[in-house]
């Protein structure tokens, strides 16, 4: 077990590559699962090109989307979309197939070599495993049929995994190609209430308040009724979508504590503060103050929405308070953008917590939710295409890769911890070494049965002679070499844990922190920096363990992870990830 006790740089590099590859595949599978359950940013034109103002109305697991391109993006010409699609088929489809074949073939050869110490291998199996110069890309099904030659050599689980690998190798380009495609790009429009023209849905806003006596504010260009819209703080959200599950708004933030000072002076938040103090519908016959001194610098005589305000903030109004109606405040004050202070105890707010009270605005026109649903359309944009994946097929594709990755790592690790084969054979035999070993074995066995091949015999005649006289023949690496018992993965892992209790505890803690962080980061989506840090930390721990560096490096690694954990907790508590 020299490769584990005194790891070479080649072995360390292989471990690092295995870790990075496994982390990427695991993160992809986790991301797709969470995306299917808690979708990320969406559009009014759903993946099936139907219109809906609800951000979470599409079922990503629907069988109808199996052959549709549902996870797509970009704005490409036809030529660009075709180029991307062909490049994917060549690089990922054919290149991925070649990579799987090469890695699997090298790993299975190593495993066959250590297994051949315990049980003899047929001459045909030896020839396929060690003398063939190239991986058997075109002999997949032949190799699958010949698995019966390895009945004594491989455990059942390994034979099943080899069969799975060979089938995956054969169908990999087809799966990779079928999971992708390109479709025309669609844009969401809404038909006008009084006319046949269509308005881009991205030009709509969601109303939150109606100030029925706004003339008291002395705002130039504003009549007696002034509609106040939700502040558009999330610029990445192109359309005013609403969540059906928790009634959150796509263009808004969840909690006002993360809003910067300038954004707090948006008109919506000024009215929020006013309603929180004085209530709705002229609730009090008292003097009131509209706005605060802190926003005077931001407004400077002009609101962010355009109307000119004179005199500047704050405005002191005579009794009664402003006559303000509200349209939509969401469902749960713990999840919604912003409730006015102390509104949770005010029954007057409760009738505005259902999404049927949502009102959209475009110019001077207001549209109810029913109008938007009825008049909304998805129209094709001329000469623009999007490229992407079928979500379900991409998930299955990633899942197959994940299973193959775990299986090939286990087989490779078992082979590595049992190499070299003996004190005399330091590496897996190949090439000329195998030819000499096989020729010597065949010659000796034929002499034992009084069979004498001649140089004039063809390859088929020699093969038939070996099959008839030797019944396929047998060859192994343990016949004339010092035999060493094969070490199992569980046996090796248990002995390592007993020998390195400190590293075992650190590794278990790290695995728990790593997977917890991956799940949290997928849910909060914006903290990818910490995911990269977790990958780097995991790789650093792996290298420190393999290279057996001093314990000081373990202390440095632990302190770094504690600092990262504290920062992550701080960010999650303050909900910076929602911005």
Automatic annotation (TrEMBL):
Keyword tags: Membrane, Transmembrane, Transmembrane helix
Residue spans crossing the bilayer: 12-35, 160-182, 389-413, 502-521, 528-547, 553-573
Name of the protein in question: Transmembrane protein
Natural source organism: Podospora fimiseda
Source lineage: Eukaryota, Fungi, Dikarya, Ascomycota, Pezizomycotina
């Amino acid at each position: 077990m020299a490769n584990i006790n005194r790891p070479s740089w080649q072995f360390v590099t292989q471990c690092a590559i295995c870790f990075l590859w496994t982390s990427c595949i695991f993160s992809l599978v986790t991301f797709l699962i969470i995306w299917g359950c808690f979708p990320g940013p969406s559009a009014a034109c759903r993946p099936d090109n139907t219109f809906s103002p609800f951000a979470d109305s599409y079922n990503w697991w629907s069988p109808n989307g199996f052959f549709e391109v549902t996870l797509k993006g970009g704005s490409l010409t036809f030529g660009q979309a075709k180029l991307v699609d062909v490049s994917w088929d060549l690089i990922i489809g054919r290149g991925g197939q070649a990579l799987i074949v090469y890695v699997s073939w090298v790993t299975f050869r190593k495993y066959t070599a250590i297994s051949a110490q315990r049980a003899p291998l047929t001459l045909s199996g030896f020839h396929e495993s060690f003398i063939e110069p190239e991986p058997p890309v075109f002999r997949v099904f032949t190799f699958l049929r010949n698995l019966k030659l390895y009945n004594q050599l491989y455990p059942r689980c390994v034979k099943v995994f080899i069969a799975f690998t060979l089938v995956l190798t054969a169908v990999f380009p087809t799966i990779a190609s079928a999971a992708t495609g390109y479709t025309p790009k669609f844009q969401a429009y809404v038909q006008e209430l009084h006319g046949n023209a269509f308005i881009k849905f991205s030009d709509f806003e969601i109303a939150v308040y109606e100030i029925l006596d706004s003339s008291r504010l002395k705002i130039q260009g504003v009549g007696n009724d002034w509609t106040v819209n939700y502040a558009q703080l999330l610029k990445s959200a192109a359309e005013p979508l609403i969540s059906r599950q928790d009634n959150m708004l796509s263009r808004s933030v969840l909690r006002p504590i993360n809003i910067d000072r300038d954004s707090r002076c948006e008109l919506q938040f000024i009215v929020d503060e006013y309603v929180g103090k004085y209530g709705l519908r002229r609730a009090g016959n008292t003097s009131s103050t509209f706005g605060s001194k802190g926003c005077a610098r931001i407004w400077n005589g002009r609101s962010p929405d355009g109307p000119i305000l004179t005199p500047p903030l704050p405005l002191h109004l005579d009794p009664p308070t402003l006559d303000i109606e509200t349209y939509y405040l969401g469902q749960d004050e713990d999840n919604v953008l912003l409730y006015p202070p102390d509104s949770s105890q005010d029954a007057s707010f409760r009738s505005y917590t259902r999404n049927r009270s949502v009102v959209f605005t475009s110019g001077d026109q207001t549209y109810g939710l029913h109008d938007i649903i009825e008049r909304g359309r998805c129209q094709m944009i001329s000469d623009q295409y999007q490229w992407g994946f079928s979500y379900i097929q991409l998930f299955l594709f990633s899942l197959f890769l994940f299973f193959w990755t775990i299986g090939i790592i286990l087989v490779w690790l078992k082979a590595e911890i049992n190499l070299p084969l003996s004190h005399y054979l330091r590496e897996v035999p190949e090439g000329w070494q195998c030819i000499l070993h096989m020729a010597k074995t065949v010659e000796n066995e034929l002499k034992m049965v009084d069979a004498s091949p001649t140089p004039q015999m063809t390859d088929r005649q020699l093969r038939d002679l070996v099959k008839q006289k030797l019944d396929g023949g047998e060859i192994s690496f343990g016949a004339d070499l010092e035999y060493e018992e094969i070490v199992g993965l569980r046996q090796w892992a248990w002995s390592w844990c007993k020998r390195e209790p400190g590293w075992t505890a650190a590794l278990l803690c790290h695995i728990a922190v790593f997977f917890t962080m991956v799940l949290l980061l997928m849910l909060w989506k914006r903290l990818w920096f910490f995911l990269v840090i977790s990958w780097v930390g995991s790789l650093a721990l792996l290298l420190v363990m393999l290279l057996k560096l001093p314990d000081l490096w373990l202390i440095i690694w632990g302190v770094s992870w504690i600092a990262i954990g504290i920062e992550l907790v701080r960010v999650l508590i303050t909900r910076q990830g929602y911005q």
